[in-house]
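Is histidyl-adenosine monophosphate placement plausible here? Inputs below.
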Amino acid sequence: MSAFPILHHHLLLLRPRLHISVKPFSRTLRGPFSSLVSAQCASSLSSTASREDTDEMADPPSAGELSEQQQLIDVNPPRGTRDFPPEDMRLRNWLFGHFREVSRILSFEEVDFPVLESESLFIRKAGEEITQQLYNFEDKGGRRVVLRPEITPSLARLVIKQGKSVSLPLKWFTIGQCWRYERMTRGRRREHYQWNMDIFGVSKVRAEAELIHAIVLFFERLGITSSDVGIRVSSRKVLQAVLQMYCIPEKIFAEVCVIVDKWGKITKEEVEKELSLAGVTPEAVKGIVEVLSLKSLDKLEEVLGSDGEAVADLKKLFELAEQYGYSQWLTFDASIVRGLAYYTGVVFEAFDREGKLRAICGGGRYDRLLSTFGSDDIPACGFGFGDAVIVELLKEKGLLPDLMRQVDDIVFPLDEELDGQASKIATALRQKGRSVDLVEEKRLKWVFKHAERINASRLVLVGNSELQRGMVRVKVLSTREEYEVKIGELS
Ligand code: HAM
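Reply from A.M.:
I modeled the complex. Tokens:
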């Protein structure tokens, strides 16, 4: 049956409330992957993204407002999540292609995990935001499960599962969807894809240096320079040293880190109150605040002395950065603590130097995560790099690629009886690896327009008179050149 009656029916339904039919279109345009056909177009659209992303958005008319005949399902995906129409999918594949290529260059192996994980993997008591944002529920078998908010615990789980069969060090990367019930802001959504690179079995800062190298290589491939983006680095051992100075028990270390990470996000008084509730004395709070404001390694050395691990690790990392040739990207900033409980050493975050966006990526060392799952510890470090903030940055910098659909050939029979011949020709070309769109039941004028729309390279016209001579007519669309070629020689 023709699709037209159905389409007609939908149009009739939509006509009285036109905004319903418009909404999915405008929403698609505004998503973080809204490169659509041109970077210019996308950057003009990006300014509306933050408006749409707030919870204040007007709700669509309720079912009661619409007459029975008008009731159409809500065609938008759940708030904070995205559809990926072809043009957005092209951008996503382009981005993931760079994630994969950089990982390959650094000699990392790809791994994958289920998006659905056991809730127990994410139960941590340090009061992290991430554990309060879980999409968690009971499955039909009564098991507590979550849509993972991050991938690091799954990595740790697999390392433990593989046990002695894995040879260390291991270098794994993965790209996967993560879910967090977040308040949406620019570049922060309720689902996002995260590129993770992690190294297990290297205790020296060489591992951190390799990971930061990967991040820098990635930025450079996209045309982002060290004047656009910087990477702030510190170590949790800085905070640990301060807490030791004030005899604060080790067991509240993770909790203190999570609170300190809120510095600048909530008021100073609130941070101080939370620290004191956790058991940090007012003198220690003062000490922490003083150290957090340090912006140079020399000053840190003056405060902590030169024999501590924090200073030694950071000095070594900056030395390595010189050798790799990316030191211009790095700055020491003692206020970088990161909000996840499990970090134990060096921590880092990439940021846009204009200060318009949230962290572009972040990571650090987590040498004691495995023991929280009941296993022996293995030194580990890694980073997570989301797909949303980077797209916002590319828009800001006019660096979004112009990704057109690309098809090699359109094969078009000029006569209905030639369908069989056209199929044979399309098959031969596809067997050679060319992408072929086989078009039927259209007028030639439409086919030419279609060729332009899908950016086809050639048009292969299957006509009666040419076929009788064993030939087809080929039109090269970029040059408008036209010629006949023997079917067997078409390549
Ligand atoms: P994270 O800082 O929570 O770290 O997330 C890493 C990155 O994921 C962020 O810098 C950002 O690019 C992206 N991201 C996080 N939440 C959202 C969101 N709601 N919407 C869009 N993008 C988001 C972790 O997840 C650690 N597990 C990273 C890690 C790996 N550490 C060691 N290995």
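Short version: Residues 150, 152, 180, 182, 187-189, 192, 194, 196, 198, 340, 359-364, 382-386, 388-389 surround histidyl-adenosine monophosphate (CB under 6 Å).
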